Amino acid sequence: MKRKIIIGNWKMNPNTGKVASKWFQEAARLVSRSKKTEIVICPPFIYLDNLSRIRTSKIKLGAQDTFAENPPAGGGPFTGEVSSEMLYNLGVGYVILGHSERRAFGENNQIVNKKIKGALSAGLRPIVCVGEEERDESHKYFDIVKKQVKECLAGISRDSFHKIILAYEPIWSISTTKARRDAVPDDSREMAVFIRKTLSDITTPAIANKVRILYGGSVNERDAEGFLRDGRVDGVLVGQASLSVEKFIEIVRICEALKN
Ligand code: PEP
Known about the structure:
alpha/beta
C-alpha cells in the first residue's frame, strides 16, 4: 500500500513572507498528530528558505519549478534560474514539473523530461503534471495524456520510477480555467487506470505500481473524500484551496480518516 500524499501548490501566492510563515506555522501545529499522510507544500521559491527553518517533521517542502540542467560546477551563467541542487541543499524534497500554467509559457514534454532528469539526479522527487485541455467525444484526450507520460518519462531509469509522482490535472477543471467544469471521481479513476497501464507498458506492471498517481483540479474540502476514496489515486494536488490553512488541513484530516 502506497502512502497517500496531499500536496499544496500555492502558485504565485501569498504576497508576503509573513503570511506564508504564519500559514506554515499554523499548519505545522494542526498536523502534528497526523500519522499516515505525507504532506507537501510548494510555495514560491522566495519563501522556501524561511519555511525550511520552521520546525516540523510532518510537512515537507516542494518547489514549483527548477532549471533543466545540472551544471557540473553546481552553478553557472543562467540568469533568473534556480537549480535542483540549490533546492536540495535548502532541504526541498519535491518539485512540480510540467504544470499546465508553465506549459502555457511554452514548456513542452522535452523540457519537462530534462527537468525530471535533473531533479532526480539532484535528489528531488518530481511531481509531474499531465492533463488534457478538453475532453472530446472521440476520446483523443487519452492519446494526449499517453504522449505526455511517455515523452516526459523517456529515458528515465527504471530504478527511479518509484520516486516519481504523476499528477493528473485536466486543465478544464483547474480553478483558474475560464468556464471550468468540475471533474468527478469517475474522471480521475478512468485516467488513473489509463496512466497506470501506460506506465506499465513503458516499464513493467511492478514498476508502474510503485508510481504514485494523484488527481488535481479544484480539489477542495468538500470533494476531496470522493477523489481519495473512489478516484483510484494515491493523493491529491490542491491549488486554490491550499491557500486557506483551514481548508487544506481539512483535506489532510479527510485523508487521515480514510480506511485503506
Ligand atoms: C493546480 O493548478 O495545480 C491546481 C491543483 O489548481 P486548483 O486546485 O486551484 O484547480
